[in-house]
Amino acid sequence: METNELQNKWSKMNTQISNIDDVITIEESKKMKTAQERLAAQYKSFIIMGGIFAIFIPLMMYNSIYFPLPMALSFSAYFILAMVMDLILYLKVCAIDFSEMSVVDVAYSAYKCRRLHHICQIILIPCAIALIGITGYQFISEPYILWGMIVGAVIGLCLGLTMYFKMMSNYKTLISKSNCTL
């Protein structure tokens, strides 16, 4: 083969590849992997925090004279539930395999993980509000503790929304790389 023939074949192959809708470039593939890795790392940190909180917060509450045992156990149950939900999401995000799955399958798996994430939030947010409300009712006569709880709730809400938007951005990166409508 001559140089001209090689160049012609090379340019034909490039045009064929550029016409294929489901082709992912190497840089996009790296970006998808890093989005997946970021999601997995976030879920892993939530699992660790949930485990720590499930053990230490109820122990601190139980040793206090203000909190009865059922309240300490309800906080422990909440953090165990959150930890289990994050573990399920972590395993599902890690199960996305770019080398074995098609682009549509990757996008659909990410879509299902994002949907499951929202379902977990729908379950956990009302539980958290109820626990904060019950704890606030316990300290209804202590204004400084109530103000501390309010400030803590606002800070927690801001941090939670920040993490939520970062995670949704990562899910969007995983989902948007295919041309399918989900």
- Residues in helices, as a percent range: over 70%
SS field, number of helical segments:
5
What fraction of residues sit in β-strands? under 5%
Radius of gyration, whole Å: 24 Å
Spatial separation of the terminal alpha carbons:
46 Å
Poorly predicted runs are none
Largest sheet: none
Q: Your description of this structure?
A:
- With 182 residues, the chain is an all-alpha fold.
- It contains five helices and no strands.
- It has helices spanning 3-19, 26-62, 69-94, 103-138, 143-175.
- The longest helix is centred in the first third of the chain and has 37 residues, at 26-62.
- It is elongated.
Write the layout of secondary structure elements.
Blueprint: H1 3-19, H2 26-62, H3 69-94, H4 103-138, H5 143-175
Helix pairs in contact: 2-3, 2-5, 3-4, 4-5
